[in-house]
Specification:
Radius of gyration: 12 Å
CATH architecture: 3-Layer(aba) Sandwich
Number of helices: 2
CATH topology: Mannitol-specific EII, Chain A
Shape: globular
Largest sheet: 6 strands, mixed
CATH class: Alpha Beta
Number of strands: 6
Structural class: alpha/beta
């Protein structure tokens, strides 16, 4: 679920939007997304429900969408932010960890 190309350390990202776009671009480049735009929309929809921030500069933005070809987890750390992101395909059953 975690791929080397989705461990994104040493970046200079300074906003939630920058992190989400950076992770989306990396996941798209790894061939994990059918649609980068739909993926980003799913993450923002989830953020509108309730923030995924858990404090101390850590957040776990995530969403569910058919735009994801394969479930994945990405880690992004920058001087200002740390974000863990887990995305899965839409399912009407099952559970998420």
């Amino acid at each position: 679920m975690v791929r080397k190309e989705l461990v994104l350390a040493g970046t200079e990202l300074d906003s939630r939007e920058a992190v989400i776009d950076y992770v989306a671009t990396a996941a798209d480049g790894a061939g994990l997304l059918a649609s980068k735009d739909e993926f980003v929309e799913a993450v923002y929809r989830r953020e509108e429900e309730i923030s995924t921030s858990i404090g101390h500069g850590i957040a776990i933005p995530h969403g569910k969408t058919d735009a994801v070809k394969e479930a994945f987890m990405a880690l992004s750390a920058s001087r200002n932010l740390f974000v863990g992101m887990r995305i899965q395909r839409t399912r009407s059953w099952g559970f998420s960890l």
